[in-house]
Amino acid sequence: MLKIAWSEIYAHPLPDKHRFPMEKYNLLPEQLLYEGTIAQDNFFAPKPLTESQILRTHDAEYWQKLKEQTLTRQEERRTGFPLSKALVDREIVIMNGTVMCALYALQNGISFNIAGGTHHAFTNRGEGFCLLNDIAIAAHHLLDKDLASKVLVIDLDVHQGNGTAEIFANEPRVFTFSMHGQSNYPMHKEKSDLDIGLEDGTDDKTYLSILDKQMNSILDLFQPDYIFFQSGVDVLATDKLGRLGMTIEGCKTRDRMVLESCKRHGIPVAVSMGGGYSERIAHIVESHANTYRLAQEIFF
């Protein structure tokens, strides 16, 4: 059965609704239930992450600032959010959602967190609507428990996974692959194990050709036994922040390529949603929903 992390706290109001559309965290599960792609028992509600799990990935001083809401004004601005206890409480539930998804994927082949993909969170700071890094925390959990030995992060959000790259810069057991808009945020890019910077306006055909070549090469050379997939839909031409030229159908084909590769190679995959900022919320929900439909088609 496809297991999906979701909690009411995911849709907790955040201050900048214009740039961070919260509606998708309720509308996406509603759409999937309405159309029959999933049932209520597919969902599980994660509990907050433990402090020891957070400190495995993030610096103690930074975590203390988050807990006590003592970030400097500059540090707070960098995250994109006015800091609050409610915001931190939300974040640590989302983090554990991805950890639990990582474990469910070992059993079922695939799992989803309706939130997550917080790839701009560094070891010692937050950026770009990300306070803590869920993929890094979950990957560390698998490695520490000997549940995986070679982890591949496939980050296809339109923005580079700079925080994830920094966290795993000296970790040979994790391969970070980020395919993103070269001229988009962040302007200063970290060094992933493989970065593919795309030109503004990149269309479906060009994008999918590059992805097919690079992903197959990584799988052959690195031979991972676990994959985390950051499936942001801000690659769409309709996205307010994205600047690429992909269609909803092209985005669906992208996700099919990734999920079919995982299934074909027998590699468990945990999927986090990542970004999506199209003017019409329907475009965001439909593009995310396609990923779940494909998972049911390919894995179950």
UniProtKB/TrEMBL annotation:
One Pfam match: Hist_deacetyl
Molecular-function annotations in GO: histone deacetylase activity; hydrolase activity
Keyword Transmembrane: no
Coiled coil location: none
Gene3D superfamilies associated with the record: Histone deacetylase domain (3.40.800.20)
Keywords on record: Hydrolase
The keyword Cell cycle is assigned to this record: no
Domain Histone deacetylase positions: 18-288
GO biological process, one term: epigenetic regulation of gene expression
Alphabetized InterPro entries for the sequence: HDAC_classIV, HDACs, His_deacetylse_dom, His_deacetylse_dom_sf, Ureohydrolase_dom_sf
Family: Belongs to the histone deacetylase family.
Descriptive protein name: Deacetylase
Annotated organism of origin: Roseivirga misakiensis
